[in-house]
Each structure stands twice: as structure tokens, then as C-alpha cells.
Amino acid sequence: MLIYGAGGHAKVVLSILSACREPVSGIFDDNVPSEAFSEYKILGTYDQHFKQIEALIIAIGSNNDRRRLAEKIVHSFGKAIHPTAVIDPSVRVGSGTVIVHGAIIQAGSYVGSHVIVNTAATIDHDCFLEDFVHIAPGATLCGGVRVGECTLIGAGAVVAPQVNIGKECIVGAGTVVIHDVPDFAKVMGNPARINI
After folding, report:
1. How far is 160 from 170, CA to CA, in rounded Å?
2. DSSP summary character for residue 106
3. pLDDT, tens digit, for every residue of 99-120?
4. Residue 58 gets which letter from DSSP?
5. Is residue 59 part of a domain?
6. Distance between CA 69 and CA 16 in Å, rounded?
7. Cα–Cα distance for residue pair 46/51, rounded to 1 Å
8. Between β-strands 186-188 and 193-194, what pairing exists: parallel, antiparallel or unpaired?
9. Bridge pairing between strands 152-153 and 134-135
């Protein structure tokens, strides 16, 4: 497996791949860190000719950055799913997606490409997550929730059943969402209010 990114999220992806006994052949990063990054050497900027048959994961937390980079990557995309994640067999998971330690995804859900389902996040039945979504640590999506492309659901947030959240939204940490959220909105509070 190849990794694009050498920050904090990349450390988590490396941990997942290690737990899965998946070897890492190299790490690309446009800004080589000044300090050592685990035991791996940073290869520098992305090279489409390096180990062309290997899959790659974009290990960057920013939804928009993952989307931008995915458009220029030539390699196929892999997945990183920690063995402690509990995922119903009916769940469909797109390429490039990372599912972190202790996450739970229930029956009938769909998780798009390049999504991050972070530590101990819970996604209940029949949820639909579009591409480049990030469900932060400890967030809970109740049944039938839809989340639009590039939206961030903050740490510890709770989304009530059947709520639709638009694209490129930010749901603040600890927010409780009980009504639909339009595209590009930033919401916070309990209950959630649009932040102007």
C-alpha cells in the first residue's frame, strides 16, 4: 500500500495498516516533515510511476484536500479498515475510505469513496455518506441519515434519524442535529443552529 500524506491522520492510517498486516511501500507528501515520520522514509511529491500496481490511500484529514488530490492520482485506491471496526456485511464501502478503530456501521448503510469514519464513530442502519465525508471521533448518526459530499460531522456530534445534511457543511463538535441542514452551512449547538 502507498500513502499520500505524512501528518497526524497518516499515523492513524499506518496504525490501521499495521493491524491488518498490510505492508506500506512508501509515503508521499508535498511538504516533507523536518522530523522523522515513524520508521518510514518520505518519498517527496507524488510520483505516478512509483510502484504503479500498488493501491494508494490519501491520508489527509481535510475533505477538500482529499478531493483535490484524488483528481490527480493515477494509482488505484485502497481501503484501510481497522480490525476492531464492526461493519455489517450489507454495508458498501467505497475506494480510498478509512474506517478507524472501534467504528460501527450498521446494516444497509453506504459509505462513499475517500470517506473517513473516525475513532468510535457510530453510523446506524440505512445511512448514506457521499464521497469525501469525515465523521469525526465519537460522532453518532442515527438511522437513515444522509450526509453530502465533503461534509464534516464534528467529534461527538449526534444526528437524529432521517436527517439530511447537505454538501460541504461543518457540523460542530458536540452539536445535536434534529432538522435538515442545507448545503454549505455551518451548524453548532443543541439543538443545532446555523452559524452566521
Report:
1. 16
2. -
3. 999 999 999 999 999 999 999 9
4. E
5. yes
6. 21
7. 11
8. antiparallel
9. parallel
Catalytic member of 75, 82, 125, 134: 125
Tell me the three cell numbers of residue 76.
488505484
The overall pTM is greater than 0.85: yes
The CA distance from 24 to 115, in Å, is: 20
Summarize the confidence of residues 116-141 as an average pLDDT: 98
Please give the Cα distance from 186 to 196 (Å, whole number): 8
Q: How far apart are CA 45 and CA 76, in angstroms?
A: 17
Does residue 143 fall inside a structural domain? no
How many whole angstroms from its chain centre is CA 177? 20
Is residue 125 part of the annotated active site? The answer reads yes
Domain with 13 in it: what CATH number? 3.40.50.20
The answer to whether 66 and 3 have CB atoms below 8 angstroms apart is: no
Q: Count of residues for the chain?
A: 196
| Calpha distance 159→156 (Å, rounded) | 10
Within a domain: 26: yes
- If one counts the domains in the chain, the total is 1
- Residue span of the structural domain in which 7 resides: 2-70
Inside any domain, residue 43: yes
Cell numbers standing for residue 196: 452566521
